[in-house]
Design the sequence.
């Protein structure tokens, strides 16, 4: 059996980043930035008031000032600060040269006359204090979220170079599976894997075509897309008489470096490569699907995107003991303030834990005692 580390190393070394495209910011969420984004000007580009308050000359020692005007955000022509004069100023408004900003809470007004309870804090966001012109603000390899997109907008980086959208094909196999909208007949079950894979793909910004087939090796071979970056096949990955996924892939020209993984759930995992195209034969049980997608397929997707290596192993304490197993277990858990709370699951076909799960705890063969420190990955 292949270890998780061996699979991660294989994928990071052999999966090549896909091509790039330039897109608008409105379409960039979830895409991977493939160039370092730099600011063309200082951030902020001028001294700005950090509060609603009053501005006076910093060197002015008067005790009483006369409010003679107002400076608003977006104002271009700024007054020269004269002795004894003060101006109302709004948050974000430009500060005249040599100005000191005092917040309203520290001012005592009597008509247009004002005195200050305290001075010297000087509530100003200075030009360039966030970043200087030419400085990198978002590095290459970052998956763009709302915060990064806002930052790119603030520096005018409105056409980022990103990895082109990954094209995936998912084929669910098995005579027993029916559409979730149908009422299953005797011996049938609803197809949860297709819904799981599609939701996972949407979270990763992957365009995913789907199909559902019975136990038909020839039909599977005919449906394999030569154009997809990533092929995902649900079912048929084990060693039974009707588990034909590995044989079909080999006939189709795929090299198969992995056929079993030291993981529970998810042992019968097939990983193959045909040129730049990668395939994962996923075990049919839905919880095994969930584990393999997040622990292994995510690593391939990160490499295709040119993103930071995945998965990111975090560390925390478990709130309850978790039993060991001859294989390393990826145990569904809920990350809480007091630690990782293991969730109950009866078998690799049990999806009920996923109603609360947002983490997978890596459990060594010896198990974990209550309060023990453990590695885990986030699933959302």
Sequence:
């Amino acid at each position: 059996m292949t270890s998780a580390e061996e699979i991660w190393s294989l994928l990071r070394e052999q999966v090549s980043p896909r091509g790039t495209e330039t897109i608008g910011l409105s379409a960039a969420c979830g895409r991977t930035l493939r160039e370092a984004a730099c600011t063309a000007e200082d951030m902020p580009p001028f001294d700005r008031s950090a509060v609603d308050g009053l501005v006076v000359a910093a060197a002015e020692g008067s005790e009483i000032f006369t409010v003679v005007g107002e400076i608003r955000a977006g104002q271009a022509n700024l007054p020269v600060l004269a002795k004894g004069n003060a101006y109302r100023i709004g948050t974000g408004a430009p500060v005249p040269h040599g100005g000191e900003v005092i917040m309203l809470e520290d001012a005592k007004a009597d008509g247009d006359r004002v005195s200050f309870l305290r001075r010297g804090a000087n509530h100003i966001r200075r030009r360039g204090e966030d970043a200087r012109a030419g400085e990198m603000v978002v590095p290459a390899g970052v998956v763009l979220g709302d915060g990064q997109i806002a930052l790119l907008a603030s520096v005018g980086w409105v056409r980022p170079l990103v990895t082109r959208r990954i094209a995936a094909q998912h084929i669910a196999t098995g005579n027993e599976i029916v559409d979730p909208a149908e009422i299953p007949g005797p011996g049938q079950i609803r197809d949860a894997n297709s819904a799981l894979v599609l939701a996972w793909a949407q979270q990763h910004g992957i365009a995913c075509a789907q199909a559902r087939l019975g136990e038909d090796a020839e039909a599977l071979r005919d449906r394999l897309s030569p154009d997809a970056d990533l092929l995902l096949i649900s079912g048929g990955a084990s060693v039974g008489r009707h588990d034909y996924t590995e044989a079909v892939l080999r006939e189709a020209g795929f090299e198969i470096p992995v056929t079993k993984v030291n993981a529970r759930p998810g042992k019968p995992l097939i990983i193959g490569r045909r040129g730049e195209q990668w395939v994962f034969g996923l075990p049919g049980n839905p919880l095994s699907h969930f584990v393999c997608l997040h622990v292994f397929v995510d690593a391939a997707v990160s490499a295709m995107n040119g993103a930071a290596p995945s998965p990111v192993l975090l560390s925390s304490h478990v709130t309850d003991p978790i039993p060991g197993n001859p294989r390393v277990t990826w145990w569904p858990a809920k990350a809480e303030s007091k630690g990782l709370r293991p969730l109950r699951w009866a078998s690799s076909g049990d999806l009920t834990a996923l109603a609360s799960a947002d983490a997978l705890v890596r459990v060594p063969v010896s198990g974990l005692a209550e309060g023990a420190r453990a590695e885990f990955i986030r699933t959302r």
About this structure: The longest helix spans residues 286-305. The helical segments are 4-14, 146-154, 193-203, 217-223, 245-251, 286-305. The chain is about 15% helix and 30% strand. The mean pLDDT is 93.
